[in-house]
Amino acid sequence: MLGLVGNMGLAHLRYPTAGSSANSEAQPFYVNSPYGIALSHNGNLTNGEELRTYLDEVVHRHINTDSDSELLLNLFASELAAYGKSRVNNNDLFKALKGVYEKVRGAYACVAMLAGYGIIGFRDPHGIRPLLIGERLKDDGLKDYMLASESVVLKAHGFQVYRDILPGEAVIIPKNSMVPEFKQVVPMQSYTPDIFEYVYFARPDSVLDGISVYRSRLEMGTKLAENITHQFKKDGLDVRKEIDVVIPVPDTSRHSALQCANSMNIPYREGFIKNRYVGRTFIMPDQKQRQSSVRRKLNAMASEFYGKSVLLVDDSIVRGTTSKEIISMAREAGAKKVYIASCCPAIRHNHIYGIDLADNRALVGYNRTDEQISEAIGADRVFYQNLQDLIECCVKDNRIKDHEMELALTPVVSRDDTIDSQILTNKTSPPIDSFEVGVFTGSYVTGDETEYLSFAERARAVNEKIKNTAKVNRGIESLDIEDVKASVDISIFNSGDYS
Amino acid sequence: MLGLVGNMGLAHLRYPTAGSSANSEAQPFYVNSPYGIALSHNGNLTNGEELRTYLDEVVHRHINTDSDSELLLNLFASELAAYGKSRVNNNDLFKALKGVYEKVRGAYACVAMLAGYGIIGFRDPHGIRPLLIGERLKDDGLKDYMLASESVVLKAHGFQVYRDILPGEAVIIPKNSMVPEFKQVVPMQSYTPDIFEYVYFARPDSVLDGISVYRSRLEMGTKLAENITHQFKKDGLDVRKEIDVVIPVPDTSRHSALQCANSMNIPYREGFIKNRYVGRTFIMPDQKQRQSSVRRKLNAMASEFYGKSVLLVDDSIVRGTTSKEIISMAREAGAKKVYIASCCPAIRHNHIYGIDLADNRALVGYNRTDEQISEAIGADRVFYQNLQDLIECCVKDNRIKDHEMELALTPVVSRDDTIDSQILTNKTSPPIDSFEVGVFTGSYVTGDETEYLSFAERARAVNEKIKNTAKVNRGIESLDIEDVKASVDISIFNSGDYS
Amino acid sequence: MLGLVGNMGLAHLRYPTAGSSANSEAQPFYVNSPYGIALSHNGNLTNGEELRTYLDEVVHRHINTDSDSELLLNLFASELAAYGKSRVNNNDLFKALKGVYEKVRGAYACVAMLAGYGIIGFRDPHGIRPLLIGERLKDDGLKDYMLASESVVLKAHGFQVYRDILPGEAVIIPKNSMVPEFKQVVPMQSYTPDIFEYVYFARPDSVLDGISVYRSRLEMGTKLAENITHQFKKDGLDVRKEIDVVIPVPDTSRHSALQCANSMNIPYREGFIKNRYVGRTFIMPDQKQRQSSVRRKLNAMASEFYGKSVLLVDDSIVRGTTSKEIISMAREAGAKKVYIASCCPAIRHNHIYGIDLADNRALVGYNRTDEQISEAIGADRVFYQNLQDLIECCVKDNRIKDHEMELALTPVVSRDDTIDSQILTNKTSPPIDSFEVGVFTGSYVTGDETEYLSFAERARAVNEKIKNTAKVNRGIESLDIEDVKASVDISIFNSGDYS
Amino acid sequence: MLGLVGNMGLAHLRYPTAGSSANSEAQPFYVNSPYGIALSHNGNLTNGEELRTYLDEVVHRHINTDSDSELLLNLFASELAAYGKSRVNNNDLFKALKGVYEKVRGAYACVAMLAGYGIIGFRDPHGIRPLLIGERLKDDGLKDYMLASESVVLKAHGFQVYRDILPGEAVIIPKNSMVPEFKQVVPMQSYTPDIFEYVYFARPDSVLDGISVYRSRLEMGTKLAENITHQFKKDGLDVRKEIDVVIPVPDTSRHSALQCANSMNIPYREGFIKNRYVGRTFIMPDQKQRQSSVRRKLNAMASEFYGKSVLLVDDSIVRGTTSKEIISMAREAGAKKVYIASCCPAIRHNHIYGIDLADNRALVGYNRTDEQISEAIGADRVFYQNLQDLIECCVKDNRIKDHEMELALTPVVSRDDTIDSQILTNKTSPPIDSFEVGVFTGSYVTGDETEYLSFAERARAVNEKIKNTAKVNRGIESLDIEDVKASVDISIFNSGDYS
């Protein structure tokens, strides 16, 4: 977290994306010229190389890291410096942001701070990555504001009233007035949040772009149940006779799996238990660690598997290594048959907007049919959600939000208290009916990204080499499959200047 | 962890028990006279004060801390010193342990290490706290051994074959022979493990004294369902009409709650979601933290509560503060009625064997009827498991263990491989049919503990004062309800002396 | 030290100067726009406030600290940015430095690094603070270079050949060519090094601006002896009868004191011994620390004082507190008479060029005659060096340098080897015959500094308040007299780009 | 420092001695049985191996380290345990110490603490290593006490009144009474302090066994001057014509050298200056560090050497490597002739009492005549102090102590105040007229130590091997000659029990 300047703060935890893992830097980034600006961002730019050249050759700014945030910060700084003004105002900032939008391609949700002025938030014109603003009433009757990438972060700090920043929109909260000003800096090109947030990435208790992650996941369970039932029926089989028990792969898929089991009227069991023993191991040098990371993290309760046909439900299948291990554990525990279902369709393409799943060639779904995938991971059969179903799961929650939104919010302040909030102005925001789904289709909302994909592949190869060298040096045999969900939060807040 | 001496190691993490929280010390403890001994223990002694006097006045050993482990270590050391031998053997050690057993009262599972000799494990004559020994086949065909307080710890280190140390039994694994020698040092006085391990304390994937924690918890759900159904029926009501949804209080009660819901054929929902946001809060000094620790840890999914009669299921109800808060959250989320069920009976007495729940006066069950408890925590009604049912839940798993044990173990080594294991010698260990249940009845297996209880009360008062002073000094308004499950492991291993 | 970029590095340790002690920052400072520049400096600017306003209002650069180095860096950066070039060359850099020289007033010796380009050194037009460049022949036959504020630093790193940067001169060593280019960026306004370097500040084994610190200090002893002898003679007294022994105040004055004693043919004794016991004290809370910091640092050897008339020799007398304490210690040890001599004249004015002695009102010499000073510090008589004598001490060493310089340098490379060194080009540098002596006269080489002095006084008052608050908060009764000599080094080196 | 128990404390810094450097442990050592005892010691035992066997086989105490302090502590503990008393008194402790004295051979000055009882000091029967007790009057009129190995340590803590513990004497200061009780536990076998303390080891401002280190060093200069003058005269030469300047090797020899120069009426000059630059070096990987550690620590001032015949004065010549380097530096600086004088005789034997100089084979004086030594170190001639002269230097100071002692002490309390001090009871302590001088003669006060010498040689070989391996692993070419004077203090204090 940046040292507090006045009464503002900015925090960021972001997972390194493709091409950057080797030497990315701690966010936020800071420049002192002009004015002193700090910036954090969430997402991934697809024209970073071009921006890098521009910054070096045209505006002569030295970039120290591979981080896109440093690019965004310096672009913003150079746009702002162009006016050469002693003191800027909201309009200058919005104009500078317009310049940034025009140069940048990709997914970005940004929070920034201008020293002595205030905080700023802006989001890419497709709304791929989420960004919200929250409002909090303080004891002294004044309000303060926070920008964050998930609603739970706002709620955890007591910002009970919030709304999403729209694609192409920006907001400034000057510390003097503490009145947020919103502006549609460039036209919304689409309103297509990354559907992977709902499938896997976001916390279940978050509400993003008006869609409850929790309820969309319940829907995924319902749709998945319909799909599986239908597929067995096509083969003349009754799902209830084919599957004895539904077992989630903890933790993300729990809600979908429970709903899926309920929909099919098949028992649901927590057959895998997370191993909570985290002690340092005494393993002697001559006893190599043969257990995979999955086996160290999960224990199978044999009584739930023994002699049964089980349906494992996971949020998604990426490389297939985890699925393969889990299926193998189920069989060792005595399962007769092991089916596996994924809450989302087969992942066959790179994720290019900030969630670095894997290179597409490393994806088990890459150039494989469902049958081939099933065979690769050792399942009796694999079931994937249909893409159209997945979209409907999210859209459905969206449609009903008017009624239930309040509940999801469980605001402490009453409805009437919040009616005059400065920020609840986008109640009429267009309902979302499409999403960024490139990982499934290979077609990305920002257009043709062939060039970026080949750049990322080269960058990844370089990083892989660095990592492997590191592994060899440390005597590590195989790196754990890292959980990319880890910690990806950006946030900033402004409680005004009362000093 | 103690610095490795030869090829042995000893680790311990233990939660401070009553009377000791102010200044207990990191385990293990060590004395150099005689021979060099290190010891860790799990449990609580009820005649510690008497032992302290004995050590000071009779054997003149200086005790630096309030830890019972230091007492046990010095008792063992002084017994051993009495022989005045240059080199001890297994028999000397067993004899010294007999001396320890004769002087000590309470619950204790101990692991110790004699420098240059080997490792030792022993367990109190009632078997109150668990202790297991695990065996592992190494790449070189040799075996090594580990002692631990939970089977999952053994399994996590690859010790797939294991058995419980019996009440009053001890085991020595000399580093030269690496052949474990077992001995019933004193007669088993009872075989009564602390039932609270199954209810709450142990990890669900552990098997303790032949009883699967996971399956005993499922049974608790079944029995609880019967009980609740019965109680509604007594009032002429149908439980399926009175309760719309069963919701667990995460995480311990999840398995019981799911089974309970299934048994009653009522929908099960994960209506509370653990807040995984762990960022540092930016809360300004003038904005006092009004949210309780429960509210910071859990979010209620409004759609699961709104307009419904909900049954919350928790493992136990201790002080009642958590229950009260959770019930209040359920109501705020729109619940029509809020019932709460506890997987164990009402806790009305001190836990004196190493799990420091609370002083009995702080227990919501202390001197209150069920109706009074229900009122105190704001529930529409509270349901408790019957004690006899709870015991049966554990006994039942015990009875069926012969068949299913292997499955629960999922041993990598086959049955045949393990048949000649040196340690699988207590296959005919007596089936357990009673347990330590003093927290429910006030009657403890070690006999009348009135004196200890009044000592503990005084000690607690002193500690409370220290804590409060600390709180005032730090400006803390109210301490979080600490999770006593935190980290309570002891373990030791011996891979022999090949140097 | 800045992380190494290529094969260059930059290090800095600098003592905070007037007005900055409260929140100065670790050097070096860095800006990424333009090009990436890091800079460290030694000295003090007297028009810092004006520069601060200029940077904010005209070039819109945010200054985070009170450090003059940050001002110099941003000035340089803004001058360089003005050209808007993609790639700069030596000429651009010299031009930019010219811009810096024109805006800045005060004392400054700077080392800077341009990312990917090379290192830069420049020195104020009066040469107040020292700056040297050293050359080193590497094993591969190539040369590398280092810039530093003292010759001993260069020698310690094996840079045996070196020369001073002249007032108003700059040098650039590009990493590609590794050929240093020197340029007289602005005309030399005077060549007046701060005489206080020779009196007190520099290490005795340094040679600055061609003057050996060691030998100038010997001269100070000779001149002081003449002066003292003369003064006694004026009163009709023989110095050898009046003074029994000459005793230095360790460590700086040792060389002068020895020479002074020899010149007068009076015994020299090390009567004060530095206390080398540095253990943590066990002093109990009720035993207040009554010993002053001087008494903790020095022990008087009674046999050297008892019954004798002693002449104490110190480098300078600043606040007088140390002198007073030492004189008192001498009397307690039995001295009959205690005279004290200072190697420099009475200090009666602020030091404004980077050695923060004290506010002038805190100087014992402020508005006091010699007799009044003598009384204030409890001496029987105080002797000061004459200013003209002091200047001659330094000039004399300067005159003889042609012959002896080599010896002082003890170069490993022979004379012939170094003859064609790229850097030995200022052999004809003008002999120095005047110095910055403002602390003695109140007249400063940069002109009328009345405005700065009143600013510094205000800043000091603010800092004093902050310090006092800190002291009160920590329960400190009196702060030690800090040794401003502590650690004041800047240096940078460039070993080229061979990758 | 051990955590304070009551109002007592114990601190120790000790340099590892022969055979222990590889794995010695931080002092003090502690045992909890019996009673809780902590102990630190200064010195070296010569029958450590024998004691180690005794502790293992007879009293069964596990020794973890190579430290003699651990041996002494466990011996003392086992003696004390033999009484089997619940509470001990002074007599028990003195009796136990008698048992320790009877088993131990070598040099030892010990401070110990008995938990809840008080502090203890005792010193070997030859008084080889120093130990003093100091008294301090507190603000409340009560007195407290401190034991330490040097008087400066006592004075630094305000203990102005002190006396030496005699050989074979012990003192106990119980925390209840705070009245020190002294007892001659075993008869004094000799009163022979290690003369190396005065030559080199002790701080110059210390007074040990009534002898001022400072004044004995002045005497060494006088005697050395007589000796050198005499030797030149034997060759028909006038020392004042042969030697132009006397130059000390800083820091220990400074006082002797100055006195030596004065005695011969030859100029004294500080021609070597300690390099106070301590910055981290930037030396590139390809530039090996060719400068020896001596050259990094000292700079020669060429003007003091050029064209002159110099006499270098050092406290002692051990391995000769430092002398050789320094002589070579003097020649490089232009010295015509380089003589070197040592304040003590040639060191030809091991130091076995706690100052690990070097194995005797590594000593330049081992099996070499003065001429051979001179040649080995590159001097024109080497001068050694005569042993009898050295002894007289110390004895002389001793004789005059009655008159001057007070001065050396510069006590704050007046003579009258101290007259009734509990501790000033050994005013009639026998004047010392012999010393431990084994390093010069090979004859040690504790008798024939052949067996120990051969043990130490083997131990040293093992340690050397470990060090070399470490060096190779770290890529270090040659370890610096470490300054064994570093940090060798033991101390303990007792301010009573007023709580």
Automatic annotation (TrEMBL), chains A, B, C, D:
Residue intervals of the Glutamine amidotransferase type-2 domain: 1-176
Report if keyword Transferase is assigned. Answer: yes
Annotated pathway? Purine metabolism; IMP biosynthesis via de novo pathway; N(1)-(5-phospho-D-ribosyl)glycinamide from 5-phospho-alpha-D-ribose 1-diphosphate: step 1/2
Q: Any binding details for the cofactor?
A: Binds 1 Mg(2+) ion per subunit.
Cofactor(s) recorded in Swiss-Prot or TrEMBL: Mg(2+)
InterPro entries (UniProt xref): GATase_2_dom (IPR017932), Ntn_hydrolases_N (IPR029055), PRTase-like (IPR029057), PRTase_dom (IPR000836), PurF (IPR005854)
Domain of life of the native organism = Eukaryota
- Name the enzyme's class: transferase
Q: Which UniProt keywords apply?
A: Glutamine amidotransferase, Glycosyltransferase, Magnesium, Metal-binding, Purine biosynthesis, Transferase
Task: Establish whether keyword Transferase is in the entry.
Answer: yes
Instruction: Report the EC code(s) recorded for this entry.
Output: 2.4.2.14
Q: Which GO terms describe its biological process?
A: 'de novo' IMP biosynthetic process; purine nucleobase biosynthetic process
The record lists Mg(2+) as bound by 252, 314-315
Full protein name: Amidophosphoribosyltransferase
Organism equals Ogataea parapolymorpha (strain ATCC 26012 / BCRC 20466 / JCM 22074 / NRRL Y-7560 / DL-1) (Yeast)
